[in-house]
Amino acid sequence: MAGDTAVLEADAVSLRFGGVRALSDVSFAVQRGEIFSIIGPNGAGKTSMVNCVSGRYRPTEGRILFEGQDVTPLRPNRRAALGIGRTFQNLALFGHMSVLDNIMVGRHNLLGAGFLRGMVYWIGGAQKEELNHRREVEEIIDFLEIQHVRKATAGTLSYGLRKRVELARAIALKPRLILLDEPMAGMNLEEKEDMARFIVDLNEEWGMSVLMIEHDMGVVMDISHRIMVLDFGRKIAEGVPDAVLADPDVRRAYLGEADEVVHEDGEPATT
Ligand SMILES: Nc1ncnc2c1ncn2[C@@H]1O[C@H](COP(=O)(O)OP(=O)(O)OP(=O)(O)O)[C@@H](O)[C@H]1O
Q1: So where are the chain's domains?
Q2: What is the pLDDT of residues 67-86, one digit of tens each?
Q3: In its keyword annotation, does this UniProt entry include Cell inner membrane (predicted)?
């Protein structure tokens, strides 16, 4: 288990769906300032693990600690308010709203929640708070280089830009840990390069810790500080990219997958 610099700790997490064991006794820690990736074959339990961290799923056994605090019983919005942000595998934007409004919603949703808070908001300095929101949102728009589409309707943008707006919304509250679920999925090479650069900048310039699931091995190996490998819900390796790549268990897990793929001519696939 990690020392006091861990931003996130998963302590012996198991998750069952009826008879399916999605996660078995998985422990890991993301250190402050780290880009930590989870990889593994399809169905290995990656999304289940991230959902346990975000609060969407409650582990059957084990605990999730954020900055030393046990957040296992907390609902997703409470964890978000504490400083855990997330993006989703599939886009989750309001297509009919502008880019600017989509990002503003990311802030209001969490900060403006509740009747009492709403009253305070209107009686005491709504304008000041609104200005504050605007300033922070503009900073994010600049950072992610989406100034040129800030007034555009989100649904009309290219896929790569929509993913960038989704990231903007997720970082609107400046979370200290961001969970990225396949941030490169469905992107072309140029969009992937842009996204990789933004993730590194978020990490280096804004000091955000990152927990990422990503299938693109090139990106994972390039930008991750450390990687955890899951297979059939179990952790089979953890370490720096080169060590994970060279790990015999990891090679077996991935090669095992490829062995099952046979081309129509009967030749085994090489990838
Ligand atoms: N809500 C659910 N109900 C029942 N079983 C589930 C549920 N979510 C996940 N599982 C099962 O748990 C296991 C792990 O799934 P999970 O989606 O976490 O894997 P993954 O590594 O993210 O896969 P992929 O790379 O395909 O997204 C799988 O066997 C899956 O079918």
Answers
A1: 1-83+175-271, 93-174
A2: 999 999 999 989 998 999 98
A3: no
What separation in Å is there between the alpha carbon of 59 and the centre of ligand 1?
Answer: 14
Q: What is the pLDDT of residues 83-97, one digit of tens each?
A: 999 886 665 677 788
Q: Where does 1-83+175-271 sit in CATH, by number?
A: 3.40.50.300
DSSP string computed for the chain: ---TTEEEEEEEEEEEETTEEEEEEEEEEEETT-EEEEE-STTSSHHHHHHHHHTSS--SEEEEEETTEE-TTS-HHHHHHHTEEE--SS----TTSBHHHHHHHHHHHHHS-SHHHHHHHHHS-HHHHHHHHHHHHHHHHHHTT-GGGTTSBGGGS-HHHHHHHHHHHHTTT--SEEEEESTTTT--HHHHHHHHHHHHHHHHHS--EEEEE-S-HHHHHHH-SEEEEEETTEEEEEE-HHHHHH-HHHHHHHHHHHHH-B-TTSPBP--
Task: Enumerate residues lining ligand 1, CB below 6 A.
Answer: 17, 20, 22, 40, 42-48
